[in-house]
Specification:
Elements (H helix, E strand, L loop, with lengths): L12 E5 L6 H22 L2 E5 L5 H8 L5 E5 L16 H7 L3 E4 L2 H6 L4 H13 L3 E6 L3 H6 L2 H19 L4 E4 L13 H17 L7 E5 L7 H5 L6 E4 L6 H10 L1
Parallel strand pairs: 1-2, 1-8, 2-3, 3-4, 4-5, 5-6, 6-7, 7-8
Bound molecules: 2-phosphoglycolic acid (PGA).
The site of 2-phosphoglycolic acid has 13 residues, from strand 8.
């Protein structure tokens, strides 16, 4: 069966996942300080940038982003529920009201820290669809699975329900491959491993009759030194940058090198 047509758009999609590196004051100050340079960077590179700050800073940053073409603001997570007795959670609807347009679903840190299963991740994705947020579903294996050579089994479990929902709802979605062992470790998978994973996702889409491939991203220790080599991998259509995105000059170099 031929692989589905790739809908690669030349500009890349770069996500700054700020995790909990900044307080609200620091997030707003970052934006204020770099607003002009960010505008120029977006204009020069034609890439799209998505900043995912902590929940409390989404509204302020979304307000600033209105004046910067190519910049969007997203959330790092959302509840799998619409509303109700879910202390500490934030609904997709609230995120939309705050000005978020994207949301990460199933980041390995939320899967791990909040015991989020593939099923919960799927419900988060469906909540995102319901409120017209674009979900970025994160997948990736732990080190032991990588070492045992069972990465594709993990990926299969993670993406099957996600791709079924994607096919059914026909809404925009992205998939970010972020091996857990590569996050925050300065270790990046080699080209062969990455090509195998992305080919597998392509093949799954083809087998499921998905004609429009979701945008496929890579995340995990991306920095200004390795991004150029990663950009040469044709299947990778954007990046999720964690720690390195908090330092504007580093982030700028990464975006310029893509
Ligand atoms: P890192 O994080 O770039 O700090 O490794 C990436 C991520 O978790 O999204």
């Amino acid at each position: 069966m031929p692989p589905p047509k790739e809908c690669r758009m030349p500009p890349s999609f770069v996500i700054a996942n700020w995790k909990m590196y900044f307080t609200h004051t620091q997030s707003v100050a970052w934006m204020h300080q770099h607003q002009h340079e960010l505008t120029v960077l977006l204009k020069e590179t034609h890439h799209n940038i998505l900043i995912c700050p902590s929940y409390e800073s989404i509204a302020s940053l979304a307000h600033s982003a209105k004046t910067i073409p190519g910049l969007a603001i997203g959330a790092q997570d959302c509840s799998a529920h619409k509303e109700g007795p879910y202390t500490g959670q934030v609904s997709a609807q609230s995120l939309k009201e705050l000005g978020a347009t994207y949301v990460l679903a199933g980041h390995s840190e939320t899967r791990h820290n909040f015991k989020n299963s593939n099923e919960i991740t799927l419900h988060k994705m469906l909540e995102a669809f319901a409120y017209n947020l674009v979900p970025i579903v994160c997948i990736g294996e732990a080190r032991d699975k990588y070492q045992a050579g069972t990465t594709l089994n993990v990926i299969e479990e993670q993406i099957r329900p996600v791709l079924e929902a994607y096919k059914l709802h026909n809404k925009e979605m992205m998939i970010a491959y972020e091996p857990i062992w590569a996050i925050g470790t300065a270790q990046v998978p080699d080209r062969d491993h990455l090509e195998k994973v992305y080919q597998y996702v392509h093949m799954k889409c083809a087998r499921m009759g998905i004609e429009r491939l979701p945008r496929l991203l890579y995340g995990g220790s991306v920095d200004e030194l390795n991004v150029q080599a990663l950009s040469k991998i044709a299947a990778i259509d954007g990046f999720v940058i964690g720690k390195a995105s908090t330092d504007f000059q580093k982030f700028k170099k990464i975006v310029q090198s893509i």
